[in-house]
Amino acid sequence: MNQTNRINWRSLFSVSSIVYSVLGVLSAMIALEGFMLPNHFLDGGVTGISILAEEVLQIPFTFLLVAFNIPFLILGYKKIGKTFALRALISILILTVLMHFIDLPAVTNDKLLIAFFGGFFIGLGIGLVIKGGGVLDGLEIIAFYTNRNTGFTTGEIILAFNALIFLGAAFVFSVETAMYSFLVYFTAAKTSDYVVDGFEEFTALTIISKECDEVKSLIVNDFGKAITVYKGKRGYLPNSFEISHDCDIVMTIVTRLEIHRIKEATLKIDPAAFFFVQRIKEVRGGIGKQTAKDPFNDNVRKDIPAGNIKAGE
Length: 313
Description:
By secondary structure, the chain is α+β, with helices and mostly antiparallel strands. The chain folds into two domains: 9-197, no CATH class; 202-308, Alpha-Beta Plaits, CATH 3.30.70.120. It has eleven helices and six strands. A four-stranded antiparallel β-sheet has the order 2-3-1-4. Strands 5-6 form a two-stranded antiparallel sheet. It is elongated and about 75 Å long.
């Protein structure tokens, strides 16, 4: 991610950024005041640390949320960009101000409902704010920065931090509360992933067929998908290892809703076609996903036809 030297005021106050951030803040406030705080349920990250510290230090949650996020925002300011850091600060301040002056009643006392809906609303809020270009939890920043400087993935870093938080919850509150808090975290993580990445899970579908030209035409012309073609060999079977044939290996990026349709259509052309499917963590460019905007970066990368990708890149 490129560091931004100047604040992009147009991006900061764009309609989409404001709408996402406001909706995200409102959703997070409902989760915290309506479900989590009255019952001492935690989410992960800075939010969880703030809830624990409120119980131990008897300092209002809103003050702690701002104080604990400041070091992470400074890191984001230096390492990610000024626009991102300012947007994140504004979102956090709006959340704390609204929570300080608006009291929402507890929605339910059912622990399972609290864990599920508390996690859903906090995850929805975090995801919407990220789509708006900011964060509500500074742990996302430290995880990103540490990921760039260590061999650990972002998920592993966040999980390690949150494991310590839930362990603290078990000591400060109870083991049961810590267990329910893990359900909050799990629900929040899944919800925020869906909000940020979308409900369409992109996968790489690879096809090896003796009728490769017809398969390529089917995918491109009938389904409107871009393809990447690798040169390979097919054959090398256990009882006929010495026999092999040149072939084209066709790869395309599809959603899980398209996989079955393409496989059925391909099998009509070649019933012996070979498939394998791989989950894709991120798609940038191409017509598989028209554009990809990094939530921590204001730059949008333009389309790159998937057929231009070379093997090994």
